[in-house]
Amino acid sequence: MDLALFVVLIILLGIAAGLVGSLTGLGGGVVVIPLLIVFFGASVPIAIGTGFVTILATSSATGAAYVRDRLSDIRIGMFLEIATVPGALVGATATVLITHANLESALLVAFGIVLFAIIPGSLARRHIELPTPQPQDARSRYLGLTGSYHDNALDQDVTYQAARTTPAMGVMFGAGVVSGMFGIGGGVFKVLALERFLNLPMKVSTATSNFMIGVTAAAGAGVMLAAGYVNPIVAAPVAIGTSLGAYLGSRVLPGLRNRTVRLLFLPVVAALAIEMVLRGFGLP
Amino acid sequence: MSVAPALASGPAPVRPLPPEAYARMTLVLRLGLIVALAILGGGVVVYVLVNPGMTSSAVLSNNPILNYLSVAGLGSGLATGSVSAVLTLGLIVLVATPILRVVSGLYFFAKVGERAMAAITFTVLLLLLLGILVIGPFVR
User: Fold this and answer.
1) What is the reported pTM?
2) Local confidence pLDDT in tens for the 140 residues of chain B
3) Residue of A67, A172, A198, A211 to mutate when probing chain B, most B C-beta within 10 A
4) Separation in Å, CA of B81 to nearest CA in chain A
5) What single string gives the DSSP state of each residue in B12-55?
């Protein structure tokens, strides 16, 4: 394919990924990585390296708004990064070593399985009502893992406190490994830890997850970039496209219902997951 | 660090970061993304223009940044005006943006005297640098 055409098509792919990502909360990586492999002939590690670029662009583009509105809990986010960042380092290192061992097909099968695992979490109906307060554990109390925000929909100030930090850290480490290995945000797993274990309100969980995804992706991206698995001719158009798509998604189309978009989009993720597994096994 | 006493049953006190912390982090994210996109966007356009007739498979099979992944290589590449070196710089800015946010978090936790949170944030920063400076080059 001619290079100029290739760059234009990748920008369009990025715009689509950014739009879908900002509307569904699923990172753009879940679309970008398989499509780069299937339609653009990128190798698995280069596609994964590009996935990180997608996440970095989306997270910086949308994260700025969340931080500005003080929905992201910086304290809780920073605390949990002590678990996600080592996870991402382990995951990205594993991907590089698996590539060196010529086991890219195993990576594809595993990626397909992870895509499947994301689907039920994305379908779960998010509860709008506030969580029932649970007691803080000692670590949460010591670090002051509490916060407050003004909920516009409920028109009240909401105060929350983090519970059960130990299992949350375990899930976050796992989310970090998955993110680092496959170049996806792993937001579904992060939100799970923030809502189920830390018992945070839905809005704070989503915004804090977004805040953390950027730092986790930086850990994985750092390893992949330094190891030579980020190709700028793929990454640059993707970064531009995703930022544009994420911006459009958050500004121009706020009326679109998340759940509707998600229901339309999940069959695509399922199809891509099947394609990845089939490819991994060398089937047509 | 002073931990305010709180009853086990009552709500724990909220210890908010200074408002400028949020403003600073928003600014870091915005600026970092804009600078990275400007470098990457300009770089890729120039790359396409100076490589007429090149195909995507040639770029995919031979990553143009491989010569610029060391400080010396990147420095001499930038000095000689290599487009690939400029693109590498754009990628570095993109990756550095969330890392700068961690640095700014560290600054504010240290400023308000929260030693435990500052230590956690500093550890995260060290781990991020470990990935880029040690693990990545080691497994290349």
Assistant:
1) 0.92
2) 444 444 444 556 777 778 888 888 888 888 999 999 999 999 999 999 999 889 999 989 888 888 899 899 999 999 999 999 999 999 999 999 999 999 999 999 999 889 999 999 999 999 999 999 999 999 98
3) A67
4) 16
5) PPP-PPPHHHHHHHHHHHHHHHHHHHHHHHHHHHHHHHHSTT-B
